[in-house]
Amino acid sequence: MNAEQASYTFRTIIQGDEGNTFHGYAPALPGCHTWGNSIEETRAYLRDAITVYLQSLIADNEPIPTDTGYETLETIILTKPTEQYV
Predict the structure, then answer these.
(1) Tell me, what's the pLDDT at 18?
(2) Bridge partners of residue 15, in order along the sequence
(3) Tens-digit pLDDT profile for residues 49-86
(4) What letter would DSSP give residue 81?
């Protein structure tokens, strides 16, 4: 990276969508959404969308948001209900 470059890291979410496509977005960047026919394609389009989004903010002298969110995965184990709970 040279003096004219900056590095930014954002969480991205990719979810299955209608018609066997995938929807991708960056929660910290309102309106920054895309879709693709595969996860890999959606990731590539999302990188492009984030790049253009950030370039637009810089051109308009707007601040670059920081991603302050976090994600966790939770596994919940349920047992079959007993007769008393049915």
Answers:
(1) 87
(2) 23
(3) 999 999 999 999 999 999 988 888 899 999 887 666 55
(4) P
Q: Which residue has the tokens 């008393």?
A: 84
Give one DSSP letter per residue of 12-76, joined into a string: -EEEE-GGG-EEEE-TTSTT-EEEESSHHHHHHHHHHHHHHHHHHHHHTTPPPP-----------
What DSSP element (H or E) covers 7? Answer: none
Distance CA 86, CA 83 (A): 5
- Which residue shows structure tokens 């959404």? 33
**Looking at the domain covering 13-70, what would its CATH class be?**
alpha beta
Which residue in 69, 39, 37, 65 sits closest to 50, CA to CA?
A: 65
Q: What predicted TM-score, i.e. pTM, was given to this entire model?
A: 0.80
The predicted pLDDT at position 71 comes to 86
